[in-house]
Amino acid sequence: MYNFFLKYLENNEPQKVISQRGIKFRKCINPIIRKLAPLSGHYNLQIVRKSKIPKDVPIIFAPTHGFKDDMLYTLVTMDTHAYILFGSLPQFFHSFDGITAWLNGAILVDRSDRLSRRASIEKMIYAVNQGANLVIFPEGVWNKSENLPILKLYSGIYKVAKQTGAFVVPVATHIEGDTCYSILDEAFELSKYEEKEGMQILRDKMATIKWELMEKYSFFKRSDLEEQGSLQKQWDIYVRTLISQVKYYDYAVEDNAEYQDKNESSFEEIFDFMNHINIKKENAFLLNRR
Predict the structure, then answer these.
(1) How confident is the model at residue 220 (pLDDT cuts 50, 70, 90)?
(2) Which of 11, 131, 196, 222 gives the lowest tally of CB atoms within 10 Å of its CB?
(3) Residue 139's closest CA among 124, 147, 150?
(4) Which ranges of 134-262 does DSSP label H, i.e. alpha helix?
(5) Contact, 213 vs 183, CB < 8 A?
(6) DSSP β-ladder status, 179-184 and 167-176
(7) Quick one: DSSP state of residue 285?
(8) pLDDT over 60 (residue 266)
């Protein structure tokens, strides 16, 4: 399967891929999509709480990102129409997910292409100015970290909010067993802050509601978990299970799309010296578990 008829969405000119007529049409059929889409999901959705969405300003929904169906359950939680920034191109062009996203309204971005990334911001600004709301995953990639509730965020969402006056609504999804839990948080004016401060506030808000779901529905004792094997091994198996739900998972892109702060070193970089140590009696203490 290859969705050739959707190739036009790769065009970097906003007017070639978005129109007011298209937005109006998609708003009309969106309730049908939201009703039918969960039938293809892997989990049962439980909306824990949701705040009222302002009607007098454009809205950018900012969901957490960590598994295949989080977009689907985000759309149902939102209960309104919004164009999706879609960056998983193999999945878009080779599966029915792409057709569903196109019917809903999608803006494509090739995360490995600098010009496409830049053009996606212009297309999103254009879409908002034509009357559309947006869904942007500011992490830019699945969060596969064992430690971070939310990865560092890309600033594209800030640029779009600044140019359009859109408010931002954080959304969190979290899976436990066969249930996906979700929270739709209160809208706030991201663009009233300077970029660095605003992005940190957004990340904090996303982490807070994500943690709320984790704390409420995924409480385990470390000792109980360790009875099933090392925590790292269990986590790796869990991540592989989530990836297996995606038929066209692009490892080359997904393994390199996480935001990297040039002024910070990664965990791997910090401890890379451990791989080059000549172990002796004098330095063996470095291998102690702390």
Answers:
(1) confident
(2) 222
(3) 150
(4) 156-164, 195-217, 222-226, 231-243, 251-254
(5) yes
(6) antiparallel
(7) G
(8) no
At 5-44, the pLDDT tens digits run 999 999 999 999 999 999 999 999 999 999 988 788 899 9
**How many Cβ atoms are within 10 Å of 202's Cβ, its own excluded?**
23
Please say whether the beta carbons of 206 and 190 come within 8 A. Answer: no
Domain boundaries, the chain: 4-217
> What DSSP string runs through 133-169?
-EE--TT-S----SS-SSPPPPTHHHHHHHHH--EEE
Closest among 76, 71, 113 to 92, alpha carbons compared: 71
The full length of the chain comes to 290
Interval 128-169: pLDDT, tens:
999 999 999 999 999 999 889 999 999 999 999 999 999 999
Q: Cα(79)–Cα(223) distance, rounded to whole angstroms?
A: 40
* CB distance 134 to 124 below 8 Å: yes
Structure tokens at 144: 């596969």
Instruction: Please tell me the predicted confidence (pLDDT) of residue 221.
Output: 73
What stretches of the chain adopt beta strand conformation (E)? 44-50, 59-63, 83-86, 106-108, 134-135, 167-176, 179-184
CA distance 39 to 189: 34
- CATH architecture for segment(s) 4-217: 3-Layer(aba) Sandwich (3.40)
Measure the N-to-C terminal CA separation of the chain; round to a whole number of Å: 51
